[in-house]
Amino acid sequence: MQFKVFDAMYEEYLSNTNFTEFSKYSKFVEAVQSLSQANVAFGAGIEAVITEAIVSTFDPITKQPMVDPVKGAKCGHTYERSSIIELIKRKPKGTRCPYVGCHEKLTLRDLQDDEQMKLYLSQQRK
């Protein structure tokens, strides 16, 4: 019952709010539209551009390009194998993930090969 009340209040808020008055919203809409139009010209969907913008091939520890990427099983963040192993060995009971804002503890057992990043890196080298 309480969710129905909340949903009704939320729907009323959305219908009574003019989001175009917010400058950041307007700038966001303009950016998405320009990306979408640019990608139509190249025959790609906007999803491809957003994915490309998010992928970082640099190790967050050394700031060097990754060659042998692994990811943390708990948080899914990707690191260069040698640098994260060296970091974990300093604190064997667990090291906090080096990504800003992530508070997951990592141990050697938490690391797994990041096959998607390996594939992405191999495609970038071609």
UniProtKB/TrEMBL annotation:
Keywords from the named record: Metal-binding, Nucleus, Transferase, Ubl conjugation pathway, Zinc, Zinc-finger
CDD domains reported for this sequence: SPL-RING_NSE2 (cd16651)
Domain SP-RING-type: 42-126
InterPro entries recorded: Nse2(Mms21), Znf_MIZ, Znf_RING/FYVE/PHD
Similarity comment: Belongs to the NSE2 family.
Stored PANTHER family: E3 SUMO-PROTEIN LIGASE NSE2 (PTHR21330:SF1)
Name of the featured protein: E3 SUMO-protein ligase NSE2
Natural source organism: Artemia franciscana (Brine shrimp)
